[in-house]
């Protein structure tokens, strides 16, 4: 099995491709790390409020991705000592 197949299997399909290119033929040891997190939002997003928008990878490559949108009332703090809001 390939490394990508192993990662896909062990992350329940959440990570399908960890390596984008084949390893060189002289590679003897590979150390990889893959993790995914499943958590709950304190304020859930509604799937109807998710739509495509532009995202810039490293500021250069533009890709269309799903963006979650929502609106909440949130407090903020002011700290005069550090002159920050």
TrEMBL record:
Serpin domain ranges (all copies): 2-83
Keywords: Glycoprotein, Protease inhibitor, Secreted, Serine protease inhibitor
GO CC terms: extracellular space
Gene Ontology molecular function, alphabetical: serine-type endopeptidase inhibitor activity
Subcellular location: Secreted
Record-linked InterPro entries: Serpin_dom, Serpin_fam, Serpin_sf, Serpin_sf_1, Serpin_sf_2
Protein name: Serine protease inhibitor
Lineage: Eukaryota, Metazoa, Ecdysozoa, Arthropoda, Chelicerata
